[in-house]
Amino acid sequence: NAGVTQTPKFQVLKTGQSMTLQCAQDMNHEYMSWYRQDPGMGLRLIHYSVGAGITDQGEVPNGYNVSRSTTEDFPLRLLSAAPSQTSVYFCASSRTGQWGLGDIQYFGAGTRLSVL
Amino acid sequence: SQQGEEDPQALSIQEGENATMNCSYKTSINNLQWYRQNSGRGLVHLILIRSNEREKHSGRLRVTLDTSKKSSSLLITASRAADTASYFCATDDFGQGAQKLVFGQGTRLTINP
């Protein structure tokens, strides 16, 4: 099992450019999520999905779009990149996202994004 | 807003000493989880403690939970250089009912040889 795979590992964009951060998991997990990690801010939830065709907003959704057409993939789209989106992005998955039942998250290695 | 807040933000100790990190949260929870993040890597789950548990052990890790004070602590005993990492607590938001796992800001632990 590869677990959670994120691509690319590094990316530099110019302001206004668009791009898609890819995330794939091979554990047949229903729940997937995207976080951004900034110094001193910890991890903040951007969007999450409880299953194919279902997505919802997290704490900091503005400037990001997601879709979930398959169980395996959960891409994160930046439509018009801004310097404020410079960050490290993590994708994570869990079996159901039922934290009250003891579910846990598995993280990818991250994508380091710089927007100039 | 952040649900969990870790204290201290940074901790530096000698190898072999014990390391204690604290986490405070704001709302009722079902359980609390701790994760570790090595530099440049993703987070890895360490241990989960349920709201009806007061203490849990896993190897050199000991986690306590005080729901009356809305706080948890992570103790790493007999620290090793390999324990150098950032440690995060994470909680669900029972009151919201949403499937969001919210992370604190983390404690950066450095073990000096």
Describe the structure.
The complex is a heterodimer of chains A (116) and B (113). Chain A is mostly beta strands. Chain A has strands spanning 4-7, 10-13, 19-25, 31-38, 42-51, 54-57, 64-66, 76-78, 87-94, 106-107, 111-115. In chain A, the strands form two sheets. In chain A, strands 2, 4, 5, 6, 9, 10 and 11 form a seven-stranded mixed beta sheet that branches. A four-stranded antiparallel beta sheet of chain A has the order 1-3-8-7, with no helix packed on it. In chain A, a hairpin with a 3-residue loop joins strand 4 (31-38) and strand 5. The mean pLDDT of chain A is 94. Chain B is mainly beta and 113 residues long. Chain B is 0% helix and 55% strand. In chain B, strands 2, 4, 5, 9, 10 and 11 form a six-stranded mixed beta sheet that branches. In chain B, strands 1-3-8-7-6 form a five-stranded antiparallel beta sheet, with no helix packed on it. The relative contact order of chain B is 0.34. Chain A binds chain B through residues 4, 31, 33, 35, 40-45, 48, 50, 56, 58-59, 90, 92, 97-100, 102, 104-110, and chain B through 1-2, 30-31, 33, 35, 40-45, 48, 50, 88, 90, 92, 94, 98-106.
Summarize the model shown:
The complex is a heterodimer of chains A (116) and B (113). Chain A is mostly beta strands and 116 residues long. Chain A has strands at residues 4-7, 10-13, 19-25, 31-38, 42-51, 54-57, 64-66, 76-78, 87-94, 106-107, 111-115.
